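Quick illustration, no need to memorize.
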Amino acid sequence: MFKVNAAVIGAGFMGSAHTEALRRIDVPVIGICGVDKNESEKAAEMLGIPKAYACVDDMLKDLDVHSVHLTTPNRFHYAMTKAALQAGKHVLCEKPLAMTTNETRDLIGIAGQSNLTAAVNYNLRFYPLCMEAKERISRGDIGTIYSITGSYVQDWLLYPTDYNWRVLTEEGGAARAIGDIGSHWMDLVQHISGLNILKVFADLKTVHPVRKRPKGEVKTFSGKLSEIQATEKVDIHTEDCGSVLMRFDNGASGNLWVSQTTAGRKNCLRFEIAGSEKTLYWNSESPNEMWIGERNQPNQMIVKDPGLLSESVRSYTGYPGGHNEGYPDTLKHCFLAFYTHIAGKTLNAASQFATFEEGHREAALCEAILKSNQEKHWITV
């Protein structure tokens, strides 16, 4: 379908997830690069990828590579994205786009001058019912938006023995729970509502100021699957959970609770968008249902079914009604939008991927939230 060859930087959880999704839309994955030649070769063998690069420079010199998917720890995003664009490659970067707004601002300029397609992987936009919510709000179905509330909670860092590179400021950035999962929620509700967050007031907490790091790295989400071996104590300066009050540009109020230490919640994003006519509620752990709240008639529950969704959303719904779609399908549809854009075909408004400008805005929101938590007052983004 697309005359584009992709390569993946990063051999962890998201590297394999990107590879699978690319194959589902018939984009060839011709190479992968891990932290060294040995990791690259192991990943290439496991995933059935032809080329294993010794380093990123080798990948970027390969003229057969047209696009790069960047799935490394956050601290590498800026330099690798910059290098890929300067090498003439289209880039789809995992969030965050970079560690600071100075870096994201620089990448916007480089991408803008390159005539290349550049995106940030805020893939949760591509759940069909999230796209349907955006369509219904844009045509005025719920009226004027009064409030947007919700949460994003997980339990994979509940215990002090739970560890991953993401907990370290130098690897993942100063904002962890907010930056790692809160940014997904903020991107999603702004994209769906068409509103921007203008002000924030945050109260963040580090539940475990000291964690016990195993000897050897732990892949994301995998810690509870293996017995913890010898450990060393590590001071933690990033937040495990927190609450953020928000003010949107139409005057609407907002509230976000984010946590990676909530037992039993594996990966649960929820939003409730309340308008003057209706309310929309959605939960990522039941992604094929959306609740519609009514004042003067019975509430509704809409299920994911192409025949029940808006016309603009149907092309990003891969299976018939009664056939559930989940997280892997959001990656597929996000990448489909990205490569359709590279091919020069028109995308409808409900299916746009996140641009570098939007990745920059999420970085600015995270910085404002950290500043608010430190200074204990409202901060304008």
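The chain has a mean pLDDT of 94.
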